[in-house]
Design brief:
Length: 443
Amino acid sequence: MAPWQAIEEDGHQPVLLRSALRRVTSSFNLVTFLTLFVAVSFNHFGLLPEVVRGTQAMGFVDPTPIQLRAFPIVLAGKDLIGTAQTGTGKTAAFALPILTLLAKHGGFRCLVLEPTRELAAQVETAFRDYGRFTDLRVALVHGGVGYGKQREALKRGTDILVATPGRLLDLLEQRALSLQSVKILVLDEVDRMLDMGFLPDVRRIVEKISRDRQALLFSATLPPEIERLAAWVLRDPALIEIGVRRSPAETVTHAVYPVAAEQKFDLLMALLERTNYDSALIFCRTKYGADRIAHQLKQEKHAVAVLHSNRTQRERIEALEGFKSGKYEVMVATDIASRGLDIAGVSHVINYDVPEHPEDYVHRIGRTGRAQNVGDAFTLTSGQELPALQAIEHFIGRKITRLKLENFPYLYTALFEPESTASAKRGITGRRTHRGYSVGRRR
């Protein structure tokens, strides 16, 4: 089997895509072979010189694996399904060839759909940066802000529109734009759109676009709902799958710190004090929890940003920009920040709460160790969270190392026992406290 053919973890190609893959594999040429097996630069693909210049101006030298695979397919005008771990350069994988295909300002021809306003703003900025030496225009529409400036941008004319589904449908209903001229459609982070209930809106939008189009779909996973959407939207798609979808980035070091629930914040403070970090991203399950932890960290004189869905758009932008610039050393966030957001230099991710869904663990820790950089991921785990932690370990197919912080005044928890011993002591029962859960102080 050719090395570029996608294989799922159980050894089988997705049934929906097998015939398409066979056709794509048979059409691979020498250029594609070289991109897979020979060191190449951005100049090897036929990208527009101005686009290559913009990419190099951003400091990028070598294409990433998903870019190596995607460039020839997108430039050939073919439909594509791309799955890759976060931090692999996915945005550039579609942005650079799209800028090349459009080449010059000529009207609205490309629509990029994103699930959240943060991702939409990030992708719009990427298009602007990569295309800075072209005359192509990029516009952004999303909720949380007024319509005025967005309508004005559409009236001035744009080649590429990056949008969230809800606001785009609003503008379509107001007849502020039409999708009849769209020739390239990008559906990005589709699994997140599925999670947020946006797929019906996405279908409504796609129905308004001509079938004579190129469509690119990117998703971290391909559950049945997304495969059905892909079968409807795409025509003979190529499938690019970079890495094992369940595995965390290999550049990240993982550790679990067992702790009684009532000592979690104290342990967090001790870890921050003893860890040499450039910037730390702390994940909480709830918006209330994120606000509470951020408030406590501020009281301890840490410079803290907060990011969750209850924050206004202005507050979100200020938090992201402040964290990226170094104004804030710590950001406390819910899972809104765990998908796709490209924040350079995050050296540490700390899961204050174990994520409820195993796949969210992979996305959370993907905020560090990006673009081949190294990073650390710490997970604070109380007794109540052990089932969720075990589900994560089953999902990623490996045991995560348990660590104890030296000279920290731990309360006893059964998590400190060897697993065989702990399993034999199931009769030990815990007790709820006003601050969480504990199984008592070790005597």
